[in-house]
Amino acid sequence: MGDLTGDDIQIKMFEPGEIVPPFSVLDAVAEGKVPAGLAVTAYSAGSFPGLSLLTTGYPFGLDTRGIAGWYYVGGGKEITQKLLNQAGVHGFMCIATASEAGGWHREPIETVDDFKGLNFRVGGIGGAVLNKLGASTTTLPFGESFSALEKGVIDGAELSLPSVDSVLGVQKIAKYLYFPGWHTRAAMAHFVVNLDVWNGLTATQQAQIEDACDAVMLKHFVVTDSLQSDALRKIEEAGVSLLTYPDDVLAALRTASEEVMAEQSAADEGFKEVYESMRAYHESLGTWINLRTVPEAN
Amino acid sequence: MGDLTGDDIQIKMFEPGEIVPPFSVLDAVAEGKVPAGLAVTAYSAGSFPGLSLLTTGYPFGLDTRGIAGWYYVGGGKEITQKLLNQAGVHGFMCIATASEAGGWHREPIETVDDFKGLNFRVGGIGGAVLNKLGASTTTLPFGESFSALEKGVIDGAELSLPSVDSVLGVQKIAKYLYFPGWHTRAAMAHFVVNLDVWNGLTATQQAQIEDACDAVMLKHFVVTDSLQSDALRKIEEAGVSLLTYPDDVLAALRTASEEVMAEQSAADEGFKEVYESMRAYHESLGTWINLRTVPEAN
């Protein structure tokens, strides 16, 4: 930001936990403890359920490219502003990563029945979906998931992007990594600014912050694409099979996902508004996405 | 740019042809006739063949998301700078659209043999590929292609994005629109600045121009995705069948494309450098692209 603004705006970065706990960035910015932060809005979804969809989208929903389209031209930016303002901040989608992996498994998943009684670590909406297929789910933190998987306390875990998981070393303890990441087609973070601080900025400063977020958005998801290639090689070299969930398993997950989204939409108006907006944009794009795609040769 | 820079940099836009002919923007900027411009670099490919790949990528190559990855993290930016500097300008990839359509046809394409003797309008590398399958190709300008197609002088035409073609009204005269756009998986334009002008800018001004291009890149390709949905509906309503080339036709086009790329790489060092760089990045991503993808439901 210093380069971009001739040092008019300078940002000093602090790591999560250094001055604010990692799960309360949005709340700390809203309360003015810090002027701005990079927030995972889902951590405030207890008060505002729609914020969870701003972090992960919905299962089988828009991928990163689609999420960017929804945000910039599908009405997403306006809905995002409204929800963030309700939560006491102004902000912009600033990071959107490539899709996560579907999940690490100790045993292969060959039929829908293989989810029955499966002990699986998965966060948020994905957990509610797997429960419908008979899985027992937990939201253990990353570190505990690793040892629980090692000891066989859980049979599998959805963690993060392959590039993150491989640094944690998950390839040493689970030998099947399944795709696609149906539950998190993209993972987003938002640059949020305290409302009073935001309103005190000049129009030029506001435009510079917004423009910087736009530039970061693009770079971030192409960088996360690129990182997965190296990570997948490393994971395969550790003896892990890279597999795709069978078509009928994906179909069952899709049906269960739609049930969960209908239930959660009925329970909260803000959630419903985000879901319907994302879904309408996705449906308008569907035919085009299929027509433009060329399967990879390798 | 006025908002972003507090009016330090202001850009006055001129339409193609208003002060510089549309095909010579890059040359006019290099010669200092105008300080900067938005250039289709392929129009200067006579002197620098690699510039054609900077405009369209290569057949069956990286799509828009992949091209952005190549540019930002796959070494593409450095190669782009080198080629643009050779051509007398400094510049950045600033626009990358969604894929083009494969082509409009008066009759269905059911086998590879249907390309034999077909009179087809297509520009650049795509034409050399179709020649290998026995088609006669021409690079008629857009306007003339329309009337040639109407009169049956040509049997088909590759033109642009569905959103552009539908405004021209091509749906009234050809009833089959084929996908995917194997020859132009993304279409790029570059913001180019005269070398002396560029070197006279401050570091902040240079960073602001680069950052603005990054922000435009992202918005442009998600906007062009969004525009295709409406265009396809309009095209279908005019009685056009939206089809996909059969798998064996695509396989033959892929093989012929690889032959053409090998020939053109052998003929020019700059072309070879761009192609090998794009291809290496694409190959590194291939497995990941297949694993992350979920086919659309509709």
From TrEMBL, chains A, B:
It is found in: Periplasm. InterPro entries: DctP_fam, TRAP_DctP_sf. It comes from the Bacteria. GO terms for cellular component: periplasmic space. Pfam families: DctP. Keywords: Periplasm, Signal. Its main location: periplasm. One of its GO terms (biological process) is transmembrane transport. PANTHER family: EXTRACYTOPLASMIC SOLUTE RECEPTOR PROTEIN, PTHR33376. This is C4-dicarboxylate ABC transporter.
